[in-house]
Request: fold
Amino acid sequence: MNALATLLERLAGLGADALLISAPANVRYLSGFSSPEDGRVLLSADGALLLTDGRYIAQAGEESRLEVAITELGKPWHQDVAERVQGKTLAVEADHLTQQLFEQLKEKLDGKVVATSGWVAELRLFKTPAELAHLREAARITDAAFSYILEVIEPGLSEVEIALELEAFMRRHGADGKSFEIIVASGPRSAMPHGVASQKRLASGELVTLDFGAKVQGYHADMTRTVALGEISSELRRLYDAVLRAQEAALAALAPGKDGQEIDALARGILAEAGLDGYFSHGLGHGVGLQIHEGPRLSKTISQVLKPGMTVTVEPGVYIPGLAGVRIEDLAVITETGYERLSHSDKALIVL
Reply:
């Protein structure tokens, strides 16, 4: 059963006549439209429409797998939706619709609006062969960018300059763009898990954490590597070795039927043996697809069983304020027998 048929079945079970999809990633998933922030999908037994405005007539016509309907100039999109489903019960994505818009739709439809949550996100957990092809290509470009940047990094360059080089390389080699704001965090700044590239200049004896990814056809790659710029202290090597052991053990544990919570605990246990678990301040991993962070989760607070077709990152990290941080991250897909690693860059400590 395809995604639209599955949603129609759930819609019937809810007793509603039409479903409005407004979350951008879900709009793109169902339609293929690459400007989903300016699109909505309206699904009913009569068919599925991509609703957008006149700026996107040509683009939507080229990209959308669904019939395209253009909202009249000056007409709010929610008014267009209400007119199309007048007299019917409309289901909406409550977690992607403001309270104001929800109330406006209820007013225009005489209260015949019901809330749903997570319907499309549940479908997106399981990647199709076409989706996996995009993810593999994004990961391939990301690996190539890492190999390239190793030849570029040197003392005196700023973190921003490194980030710009990474983005330019990925775009030159087929990426739509970067998956997220590139993290380049050196020296004490590497203790910031989301240390977006700054004007700080790299210096010898520091660790440099690079967290980045290419985006291909809307699908994101996500990889982190930490490298040494010249010789580093024995304490920094100890941090690196502990994180690497935790990452490789957790990666090897990926398999269908495994609980992400248990894999998170495995990584934390290895860091605890080194006295470092108190410096691991986030979950072990997350799904990746049309969003950089989506389900499933590898987390100590969420129990979620892994199944074939799911993608996950495995990214333990240790962050010691005032000293340094280390994170190592791979992207993988769960298979029938285990996992396929999509990130292939070397994880042994690289000293530049």
